[in-house]
Amino acid sequence: QVQLVESGGGLVQAGGSLRLSCEISGITFRSRAIAWYRQEDPEKQRELVANIAAVGKTTYGAFVEGRFTISRDNSKNTVYLQMNSLKPEHTAIYYCRTFHHWGRGTQVTVSS
Predict the structure, then answer these.
(1) pLDDT for 48
(2) Residues in the chain with pLDDT values less than 70
(3) Which residues are CB-contacts of 69 (< 8 A; sequence separation ≥ 6)?
């Protein structure tokens, strides 16, 4: 059974930082690409934030503008998203995904 568990969300002031974590079980973690998505509200589609390939290559959504960094620790089956210089428009639920498996998300709220 594949499980993805996100953590690290919360309320932060504009300009602050958060680090999200996604711990994954039930897969061969080191061989999988893992991605972070966000959903600003239920009416909008989930949007790619960042992706990290099994070999470590990273890609980011255009809105990231160098503020976020995705990384992985294969020894812990965990992917991280370091978010710096946060803005109110970064407020969303952030989800972890591998293939068709999704976590339940973690809420990030950035106050102005």
Answers:
(1) 97
(2) none
(3) 50, 58, 81, 82, 84
